[in-house]
Structure formats: structure tokens, C-alpha cells
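Example record for the data management plan.
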Amino acid sequence: MNSTLRLTLASLVAGTTAAVLVTQAVEKPKYTTQEVMKTLHKGKDSIGKHVMDGNGTKEEIHKLLEYYPSLLLNEPEKGDKAEWKKRVTALLAATKALDKGTPGALEQFKEAVNCKACHQAHKPDKEH
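Corresponding structural encoding:
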């Protein structure tokens, strides 16, 4: 094998390896699903509840936008992955619409934040 071909193959292998490493680094979620839920939705005075009540501040909406993308990178604990992605994508879209002040965004957000439906589909049953 001539040196030009070796150099080309070595560059290709190095580039592919770097691309895989960058992709893995980018795809690692910042927060676990449990961290997202605990931070944003736990309790009657949670950020999520405050936003759903129409009282969310820009800072609270930005906090949602900081945490929710991790859900797309996390696997659902149970249930269909495509359905999980569909739910989270709707949640992100609704939150971005809230941030932009899009008319109807609050209703869209309320529909996307359906805790019971999401938990039934994706949260494992607790063993007694």
C-alpha cells in the first residue's frame, strides 16, 4: 500500500473515531428523568405547576428549557421509545412556544404536561 493511501485511510479512521466520540458526548443527557421530574414537577408549588397555572416567569420557563431536552436523551423506564420521544417533543415544542409568547402556548403546554398518561405509559410500577 502506498503512503498516500495509508495516510488517507488513517485520516478516515481518525475522523470517524472523533465523530463517534463527539456524538457520544453530545448525546449524553445533562439530567436523568428523575432529576427533571423532581426539579420541575414535584410538589404542588413546583415550577411546572406554576407555569401551568399561567403564572410562570421567564426564568421558570428557561429552567424548563434547560431540563426538558435531557428527557429526549434519556430512555423511558418502560413503554414504547417512539411514544416517549413523541411526548417529550410535544412538551419541548409547547415550552418553546411559551417562551416566545405564542398565542395558545399555555393550552398546548397544559396538554403536553399530562403526568398521569405519561406515568402510566413510561414509569415502572412500584413493587410492594
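Summary line stored alongside the record: Helices lie at 3-26, 33-41, 47-52, 58-73, 81-100, 105-112, 115-122.
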